[in-house]
């Protein structure tokens, strides 16, 4: 290096200081919230129990068969009280964060279903687009209230993390005859995208429910599920979620829990995943769950109405653009405004985006 250039560079380094951690690139940790924790059963037990939505048709049967048969009647009212809710914060650094829980194999299929805060759609900006059904999404979505979790499940014996302390994975390695370390992925949670199996395993994007069926679980064997925090909502960096563990496969759960024919209707299966920040423990500490069972008073005001409109709009329900226009008009009439990047008042939180952000023709 040229010596004349080297000296000024040293001066700049001395003035600006050096930060090799890169922590400034990440959302800050929230005091009083754990970015890594483990969920136990409501009674304090070690394992969560898969929920059967089909009560046994013969309550006098001494040995009722678990799971649902084709002729069983579904009790959809069992979904809400058996959904687990909570929040998670960023770690404040490149360290991975997330939530884990255990369940035991039943000898049958088990579905793990999670729904992160809130719901996301892509704005349609082509007024002449060929699908009239998509015209209702001409109003922009609010990207600041959405979070994203990635789901992984495997046998607990293969999990490399320490629940509640360090996030791991299900990758183990062995040394081949040539001395090479060969990694093996032992997660049994495989999700396939719309493109089909050729693209391999995928994870849905922001605000989108994520789920997988663990086929033919082994009786009495411990399984670990990891809900990895991929991103938290930028408006408050607290990501709410809903979790349901179903005794059966996920397609069966989707049907029996009230899902429609479009994947977007998955958003309505677990409502209330947008958690309103609270300090309700009684000792001043932030309360971030977990909570067992749905409680609409725990959600951000208006969030469940937004999710309901979003998921039913794909199957002939209310129009999203009309919902967004109505939301904005109601705020103005009540003397509030829309906050997106940071919510300063709960009454100012809008679930639709800023119409001024709509791209125009020829814009760069």
CATH class: Mainly Beta
Q: What's the CATH architecture name?
A: Sandwich
Main beta sheet: 5 strands, mixed
Strand content: 15-25%
Number of domains: 1
Q: Which fold does the CATH topology refer to?
A: Jelly Rolls
SSE diagram, text form:
Elements (H helix, E strand, L loop, with lengths): L2 H14 L19 E4 L7 E2 L35 E5 L9 E7 L5 E7 L31 E8 L15 E5 L5 E5 L24 E5 L7 E10 L7 E8 L3 H7 L34 E2 L10 H11 L6 H15 L30
Parallel strand pairs: 1-4, 2-4
Antiparallel strand pairs: 3-11, 3-12, 4-10, 5-9, 5-11, 6-10, 7-8
Describe the 3D structure.
Helices cover 13% and strands 19% of the residues. It is an alpha+beta fold and 364 residues long. The strands form 3 sheets. Strands 1, 2, 4, 6 and 10 form a 5-stranded mixed beta sheet that branches. A 5-stranded antiparallel beta sheet has the order 9-5-11-3-12, covered by helices on one side. The chain is globular and about 65 Å long.
Question: Keywords for this structure?
Answer:
single chain; 364 residues; alpha+beta; five-stranded mixed sheet; five-stranded antiparallel sheet; 12 strands; disordered N terminus
Q: How would you briefly describe this protein structure?
A:
With 364 residues, the chain is α+β, with helices and mostly antiparallel strands.
């Amino acid at each position: 290096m040229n010596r004349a250039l080297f000296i000024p560079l040293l001066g700049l380094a001395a003035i600006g200081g050096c930060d090799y951690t890169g922590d400034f690139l990440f959302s800050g940790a929230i005091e009083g919230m754990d970015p890594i924790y483990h969920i136990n059963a409501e009674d304090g037990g070690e394992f969560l129990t898969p929920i059967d939505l089909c009560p046994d048709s013969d309550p006098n049967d001494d040995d009722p068969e678990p799971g649902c048969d084709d002729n069983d009647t579904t009790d959809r009212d069992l979904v809400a009280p058996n959904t687990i809710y909570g929040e998670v914060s960023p770690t404040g650094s490149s360290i991975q964060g997330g939530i884990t829980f255990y369940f035991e194999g039943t000898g049958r299929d088990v579905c793990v279903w999670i729904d992160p805060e809130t719901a996301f759609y892509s704005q349609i900006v082509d007024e002449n687009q060929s699908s009239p059904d998509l015209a209702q999404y001409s109003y922009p979505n609010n990207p600041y209230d959405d979070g994203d979790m990635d789901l992984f499940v495997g046998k607990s014996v293969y999990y490399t993390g320490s629940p509640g302390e360090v996030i791991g994975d299900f990758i183990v390695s062995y040394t081949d005859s040539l001395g090479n370390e060969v990694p093996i992925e032992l997660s049994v949670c495989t999700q396939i995208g719309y493109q089909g199996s050729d693209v391999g395993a995928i994870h849905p994007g922001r605000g989108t429910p994520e789920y997988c069926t663990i086929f033919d679980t082994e009786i009495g064997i411990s399984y670990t599920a990891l809900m990895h925090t991929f991103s938290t909502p930028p408006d408050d960096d607290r990501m709410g979620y809903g979790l349901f563990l179903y005794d059966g496969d996920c397609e069966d759960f989707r049907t029996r829990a009230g899902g429609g024919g479009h994947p977007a209707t998955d958003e309505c299966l677990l409502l209330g995943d947008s958690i309103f920040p609270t300090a309700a423990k009684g000792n001043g500490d932030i309360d971030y769950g977990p909570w067992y069972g749905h409680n609409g008073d725990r959600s951000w005001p208006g969030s469940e109405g937004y999710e309901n409109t979003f998921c039913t709009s794909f199957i002939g329900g209310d129009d999203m653009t009309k919902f967004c226009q109505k939301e904005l008009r109601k705020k103005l009439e009540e003397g509030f405004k829309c906050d997106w990047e940071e919510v300063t008042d709960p009454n100012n939180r809008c679930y639709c985006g800023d119409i001024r952000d709509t791209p125009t023709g020829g814009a760069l």
